[in-house]
Each structure stands twice: as C-alpha cells, then as structure tokens.
Specification:
Blueprint (H helix, E strand, L loop, with lengths): L11 E8 L3 E6 L5 E2 L2 E3 L6 H13 L1 E5 L5 E3 L2 E11 L11 E5 H6 L5 H28 L1
Parallel strand pairs: 1-7
Antiparallel strand pairs: 1-2, 1-4, 2-3, 2-8, 5-7, 6-7
GO molecular function: metal ion binding; pyrophosphatase activity
Keywords: Hydrolase, Magnesium, Metal-binding
GO cellular component, one term: cytoplasm
C-alpha cells in the first residue's frame, strides 16, 4: 500500500556559501541555530541550481556553484558555492538573519548546528589535502 507521505517527499539541497576560501555564510534556522541555506528542488530544476537559488533567497549571496554535491547530511545534498556578491536586499531578508564566520570560529560556535560544524570540518580537511597535493607537486618541480 503506498504511503500518503510519498508525494510530499521532495529532494532537498543546500548551499555551502564560501567567501575568500576562509569564511562561510550561515542563516538562522527556525530552531535558532546557524545553518546553511537549503530548500526543495523545483520540478525541472537541477539540484545545483536549486542550491544557488536557496543561497540567494535565504542568504542574499550570488556566486559560482560546484556541479557535484560536496556531501550529503541528514538527507540533504550540499553544494559548495563560491560567493562573488553579497546583496543588501534579498527575498528572505525580513525572515532570516545571516552571519559570516571564519571557518575555525564556526567549528567552535555552539550556535552552529552540529551537523553543519561536521560539514565545515570536512571542507577544511578537503582543502588541506588539496593544498598538500599542490605543495607536493611543487616539490616535484624543484
């Protein structure tokens, strides 16, 4: 027998808005935690486009999104968005607070949702590995 809730299930995506590769934008959840902008994918919309839209609507940022999800947490696919522009006015500016934190500060801030801190930690680890590979490649040249 089909579950009545099956029709209500939507694909949910989120954006990880990165500024200057050192800071992250967060929005306030309804539970008063800092989280990443997220929401449902509309019909005929690509997941990464939905993540970009949510970052604009909830956080007032515009940027370049990666086409593959960075990670999946709590059933949400999160996409890294390199922020190019921060807008003063945006669709949910009256409904949601936003803040920008240095990545290391976000890891220590208990107002940042725990699963979000896990994502930040994963992002930092990935960046360290990428930079280590770059550095090792540079040593090969020498």
């Amino acid at each position: 027998m089909p579950n009545e809730n099956d029709e209500d299930k939507r694909t949910i995506v989120g954006a990880i808005p990165i500024l200057d590769d050192q800071k992250i934008l967060f929005v306030k959840s309804r539970h008063e935690n800092w989280i990443f902008p997220k929401g449902g994918v509309k019909k005929s919309e690509k997941s990464y486009d939905a993540a970009t839209r949510e970052a604009f609507e909830e956080g007032g940022v515009i940027g370049q999104v990666e086409l593959e999800p960075f990670c999946v947490k709590k059933g949400v696919s999160f996409y890294v968005l390199s922020v190019a522009t921060i807008l003063d006015s945006y669709p949910e500016s009256q409904e949601r607070q936003r803040t920008i934190m240095k990545m290391m500060d976000a890891l220590e801030n208990t107002e940042v949702a725990e699963y979000v801190r896990e994502i930040v930690k994963e992002y930092i680890r990935k960046r360290i590995v990428e930079h280590t590979d770059d550095f090792l490649g540079f040593l090969d040249i020498l």
